[in-house]
User: Fold these one by one.
Assistant:
Number 1:
Amino acid sequence: QQPVQSPQAVILREGEDAVINCSSSKALYSVHWYRQKHGEAPVFLMILLKGGEQKGHEKISASFNEKKQQSSLYLTASQLSYSGTYFCGTEPQGAQKLVFGQGTRLTINP
Amino acid sequence: NAGVTQTPKFRILKIGQSMTLQCAQDMNHNYMYWYRQDPGMGLKLIYYSVGAGITDKGEVPNGYNVSRSTTEDFPLRLELAAPSQTSVYFCASSTPRSSNQPQHFGDGTRLSIL
């Protein structure tokens, strides 16, 4: 079953922070986060494994709450280059594939 | 390294025609995937393969077929093209899940059925 992302869209000014959430109804082994710019392929950001870890990538970090089967992506002091659509891909336990959310469109204005 | 290479990049088909979307990877990845992405939507898994000779259906397999005769190649076949198959198709590859590595995506094939 497809994970649910929220919000569906967000508009920020450069330098503001954003949080994107991803919820699944299934027990998860991992959560993947990707960013896609218009007309391009998705680009990998990070993987969160069960165990509730938090990872970071420059000013972008993420957490995974195993008990709630939820992951959150945090974008700090957003830059114009952060604009795009963010997708979470969830890997249910026992599966060998990802199920992607519907995406969150992030727009960063100067 | 070329990574994941998809051909063609663009294609227009008439209803009822057939075609094969090609996907090749040079990273020696066992796992390969085909997704479709409709405008403004997320990625839907069509078929995937965990190794040569092994394929399995994803969420939206109807109207498509795949084969995996080598580790490098994973072609996607559309037998009778329908307007509902107008979409962007992405191929991806990865190492087995146990290594916790990401999926690497090709640049996509933009397909229109008229």
Note: Chain A touches chain B at residues 2, 29-30, 32, 40-44, 47, 49, 87, 89, 91, 96-103 (CB under 8 Å).
Number 2:
Amino acid sequence: AQSVTQPDIHITVSEGASLELRCNYSYGATPYLFWYVQSPGQGLQLLLKYFSGDTLVQGIKGFEAEFKRSQSSFNLRKPSVHWSDAAEYFCAVGAGSDSWGKLQFGAGTQVVVTP
Amino acid sequence: GAGVSQSPSNKVTEKGKDVELRCDPISGHTALYWYRQRLGQGLEFLIYFQGNSAPDKSGLPSDRFSAERTGESVSTLTIQRTQQEDSAVYLCASSRRDRLTDTQYFGPGTRLTVL
């Protein structure tokens, strides 16, 4: 069974600084990987996803993530954060292309942006 | 509206009462998912529907939980004899098909508090 670990429960970052959120997964084959963001009072929104191909994936809102098979990681990055990036971020893994859309989510990382 | 909607947004109930949570998916989406998000935790899969059928109910925590979907549209999650541990945000998502390659769009959730 697949699993997802987000080691950082809470991160504080200054506006304009770079941000990196860590995600480690456990899965035997090539996983399908996702990052979602949950803003206060909002539903989860998909930031980006990785299925295959180029291991550096670009998403919405200026986010990118890199799949590293050797490290079983799929870390999310943003070069310069904006106050509106304050939210909770969830990494998720799916079992594979022939599987239906069941996702295993990490516990989330809360991001606080300071002026 | 174009998104997934859920009602009520908040529900406070007394232990032992039954509750019904409603999800209206995006029109034309054949797959519908229910997740539970306990405080400080990631999303936990409950059940999913393809059309009106539920091929995977493996995440339902107990026989107090049930769900149905009618007209390949609205879904209702019912919790009977609620317990305090049922307190959580219940999230619904829909996707065009039940494949990982199809983005899941989430509703804003129903926050359930059991006193």
Note: Chain A is about 0% helix and 50% strand.
